[in-house]
Specification:
heterodimer; A: mainly alpha; Cytochrome C Oxidase, Chain A; 16 helices; globular; B: alpha+beta; Immunoglobulin-like; five-stranded mixed β-sheet; 30% strand
Chain lengths: 545, 336
């Protein structure tokens, strides 16, 4: 048959840089998200190393308190708003359309716009560093009245608020995009209870983002108006606790915004490498939904020491204790998925199993803070620092790496190097625990968080602080190994087939990397594991023949 | 030895800690080393939660590790495809529910005691200031940074702040109490035995948050009465300065609306009086780091404040409202 060489469309000859900068393809946008957020992860990580260097010994003068407070503030804000939350938007962008058998996100241009707001928001926030008075230094919580004009002079705090507003717009638009995509663009047969758990997690996360983010935007706008126009929302005798109520009404659900997608990733990785379906699929979906709903009802547990009426504190203690139940169900269902499986330890699987263990620690040490009386003694100490990192680093970040190792072959057509991956995993696991386990003990020995210098006469704090600082550098080495692994593998890694792990979900039914239009033909969806069904029907047909 | 309880439970880690010699002057601020009934009640609850948590950790964590090691892939056969088991799932929804319900009830039963305490014998007003603690006793006497309490008595604390949020915390005597501007929060502490107990502000409060330390001196009730009546504590030197009124000043310091003490450094002789005048409309304070020098917490526009210096030396003071803008001053007192 004669073939006719068609002229290549003009777009294909365009400069590759311009192509990436103007792309509205969900996969490219997803990759842009991953690059950008990983960059911010490195920036936030360097800030963490600076802080751990300062805190390694008592009475240190490596950083001035002024600089330390800025770095402490930017580390928290960076890791939450520029790394963990948007990195999952990156995974969501790339894989939600593929997993539901769609060609793209519902609103590709809005999608691109949501992405480009991320670097803009980040740079706006960081630009405070260039002002004479420095960047924001009120902690990532930005509590009033410390962030009011009387106590936070200069533009740093205003730029921080503007940056968060920009990131908030990005999150809200992204959330709407995910919700519309998941609700309207599922391929025939992809019913709600055949939806991959990762898609469930993005659905619930997007719902939380949409409902909660406006509260953060609103409360920050009030502070901004106080600072710039002299309104009196939070100064001149107004109740500073009002800020905290509104702030935590966003920021507690935000904790789940930061962990639910990691639940989703782990719920994809563990079944594939155990060669079993997820145990209790519906319970897994419902428990995420329950966490999402309860997540709106526990926010005042961040305020137990502020003198709220005892009855109110007890109510929030009760709801907080309740949220342990769906979390417990998740852990036990992951355990049951492993049980009786045929487990293959790839780097992705190692990260996923470690995720479950670290999340267990972060869940159990959270119970101490849920109990009012013990919270009076550990609130705002290093115990809290430990808890949040067990959930967000041992949990979410390990989940991110599980996702990166699992989906890298799909995104690039090549494997990440498994040996380097396992080396990174063990260093990261050890480094993480060496860093954050001692922080429990620091909390129990009365060390407040957010202190720029710890007084050397608190001698009990010395060994734990030194240990934590050493651990931080071990984590840094692990991350460095990942960067090397990435640099080697992205061009020279072992080639991966379309379905290298014997996956279950639709993204494995297309080529690696997928074409711009995602699928030549979308396989029929008759169960929660359409690609497994496809594999089996092919095998059966071969045997029959 | 601090954290005895913790380290006792974790002997291996305790051994690491023991490698570090304890120098003289070491300060113990561990809430686990409770020294009064409020703090010790919390330690009892902590211990109970700790053991429940350990049991959960060991069982669930152990099962995960066991499963992760035992069920490694041995051959290419597909394992049995179990999708779930409603009975087991109901069971392990119920078990955590029972555990957290127990913890909830256990904590709730102790909360009235921990939060409100027995009827107080002494009430002290606590004010957080960037970056110091002020204390006001029942007879109007004040002190900064160091609070004196009678040992063996219930001390009610009425806590507020003059500027931003702070948190009053002396871990060995009781839980934290937030200091909120414009509001009065309450808490209580009791030291079972005389001694010194330390703490520091536990809510991030700006630039020098780390330096906002405090000390509680628990003394015998008799010594406490002597402290209140103003008898100098044994061993204390003569007072370096005293507050006076209407005396002709040897030196004047103006407080201006551009947030400066004018002049910022002044030299006087022993026996001289320095007068501060608020020339503007903004509120200021004259707060000395030496707590034996009288300070003025609030000075409105037009008001004056006089101090007579009795001992040679250098005295640093700040305006607590505007110290972030660099509003600081020094008085140098030269000998006779």
């Amino acid at each position: 048959m004669a073939s006719i060489a068609l002229p290549r469309p003009a777009a294909a000859r365009r400069n590759v840089v311009i192509e990436w900068l103007t792309t509205v393809d969900h996969k490219r946008i997803g990759i842009l998200y991953l690059y950008t957020t990983f960059f911010f992860f490195l920036v936030g990580g360097i800030m963490a190393l600076l802080m751990r260097t300062q805190l390694a010994v008592g009475g240190n003068d490596f950083l001035t308190p002024k600089l330390y407070n800025q770095i402490m503030t930017l580390h928290g804000t960076t890791m939450i708003f520029l790394w963990i939350i948007p990195v999952f938007s990156g995974f969501g962008n790339y894989f939600v359309p593929l997993m539901i058998g769609a060609r793209d996100m519902a609103f590709p241009r809005i999608n691109a716009f949501s992405f480009w707001l991320i670097p803009l928001g980040g740079l706006t926030m960081y630009s405070g560093l260039l002002t004479q008075t420095g960047a924001a230094a009120g902690g990532w919580t930005g509590y009033v009245p410390l962030t009011e004009r009387a106590y936070a002079v200069g533009l740093g705090q205003d730029l921080w608020i503007l940056g968060l507003h920009i990131l908030g717009i990005s999150s809200i638009m992204g959330a709407i995009n995910f919700l519309v995509t998941i609700h309207n663009m599922r391929t025939p047969g992809m019913t709600w209870f055949r939806l991959p758990l990762f898609v469930w997690s993005i659905e619930i996360t997007a719902g939380l983002t949409l409902l909660a983010s406006p509260f953060l935007a609103g409360v920050l706008a009030m502070v901004l108006l106080d600072r710039q126009l002299g309104t009196h929302f939070f100064n001149h005798g107004s109740d500073p606790l009002l800020y905290q109520f509104i702030f935590w009404f966003y920021s507690h659900p935000a904790v789940y915004i930061m962990i639910l997608p990691a639940f989703g990733i782990v719920s994809e990785v563990i079944p594939v490498f155990s060669r079993k379906p997820i145990f209790g699929y519906r319970a897994m979906a419902f428990s995420m939904a329950a966490i999402g709903v309860l997540g709106f009802m526990v926010f005042a547990h961040h305020m137990f020491t502020t003198g709220l009426p005892l009855a109110l504190q007890e109510f929030f203690m009760g709801t907080t204790a309740l949220i342990a139940v769906p979390s417990g169900v998740k852990v036990l269902n992951w355990l049951a998925t492993l049980w009786g499986g045929s487990i293959k330890y790839t780097a992705a699987m190692l990260f996923a199993v470690a995720f479950v263990l670290m999340f267990l620690v972060g869940g159990v040490d959270g119970v101490f803070m849920a109990s009012l009386a013990t919270d009076y003694q550990i609130h705002a100490t290093y115990w809290v620092v430990s808890h949040i990192h067990y959930v967000l680093f041992g949990g979410s970040v390990f989940g991110v790496f599980a996702g990166l190792f699992y989906w890298f072959p799909k995104m690039t057509g090549r494997y990440l190097n498994e040996t380097l991956g396992k080396l990174q995993f063990w260093l990261q696991l050890v480094g993480f625990n060496v860093t954050f386990m001692p922080m429990h003990f620091l909390g129990l020995e009365g060390m407040p968080r957010r202190i720029a210098i710890w007084l050397p006469n608190r001698t009990d704090w010395a060994p734990w602080n030194l240990m934590a600082s050493i651990g931080a550098f071990v984590i840094a080495i692990a991350v460095l190994i990942f960067i090397i692994n990435f640099a080697i593998s992205v061009r020279g890694g072992r080639r991966a087939a379309a379905d290298p792990w014997q996956g279950n979900t639709l993204e494995w039914a297309t080529t690696s990397p997928p074409p711009a239009y995602n699928f030549d033909t979308i396989p029929p969806v008759r169960s929660g594991r359409p690609v497994r069904d496809l594999r089996r029907s092919v095998t059966a047909a071969a045997e029959h023949a | 030895m601090p954290g005895r309880l913790l380290l006792g439970m974790l002997p291996a880690l305790g051994a690491v800690a023991a490698l570090y010699p304890l120098p003289a002057g070491a300060i113990d601020v561990s809430p686990l080393d409770c020294a009064g009934p409020n703090a010790c009640d919390i330690v009892n609850l902590y211990t109970s939660i700790f053991w429940i948590a350990m049991v959960v950790m060991v069982i669930v964590g152990g099962l995960i590790v066991y499963a992760a090691l035992h069920f490694r892939r041995k051959d290419d056969r597909e394992p049995s495809q179990v999708h779930g088991n409603p009975r087991i799932e109901v069971l392990w929804t119920a078990i955590p529910l029972v555990i957290v319900a127990f913890l909830f009830v256990q904590t709730t039963l102790r909360m009235d005691y921990v939060r409100n305490g027995p009827p107080p014998q002494v009430t002290i007003q606590v004010t957080g200031i960037q970056w110091a603690w002020g204390f006001k006793y029942s007879n109007g006497k004040t002190s900064f940074t160091k609070m004196t309490i009678p040992a063996g008595q219930v001390v009610r604390l009425e806590v507020t702040s003059r500027d931003v949020l702070h948190s009053f915390w002396v871990p060995r005597l009781g839980g934290q109490v937030y200091a909120l501007p414009g509001q009065m929060n309450h808490g209580w502490i009791e030291a079972s035995h005389p001694g010194q107990y330390f703490g520091q502000c536990n809510e991030f409060c700006g630039l020098d948050h780390y330096s906002m330390t405090l000390e509680v001196d628990a003394v015998s009730p008799a010594q406490y009465q002597a402290f209140l009546s103003g008898a100098p504590p044994p061993g204390a030197g003569p007072s370096p300065a005293e507050k006076v009124n209407g005396v002709t000043a040897a030196a004047n310091v103006a407080e201006t609306d551009d947030l400066k003490f004018q002049p910022s450094s002044t030299t006087v002789k022993v026996g001289d009086v320095v007068q501060w005048t608020n020339n503007g409309t903004a509120v200021h304070s004259v707060t000395f780091d030496n707590q034996q020098v009288p300070s003025l917490d609030t000075q409105n526009g037009g008001e004056t404040f006089e101090v007579k210096f009795l001992q040679p030396g250098t005295y640093h003071y700040i305006c607590t409202y505007h110290v972030t803008s660099g509003m600081k001053g020094t008085i140098t007192v030269s000998g006779g």
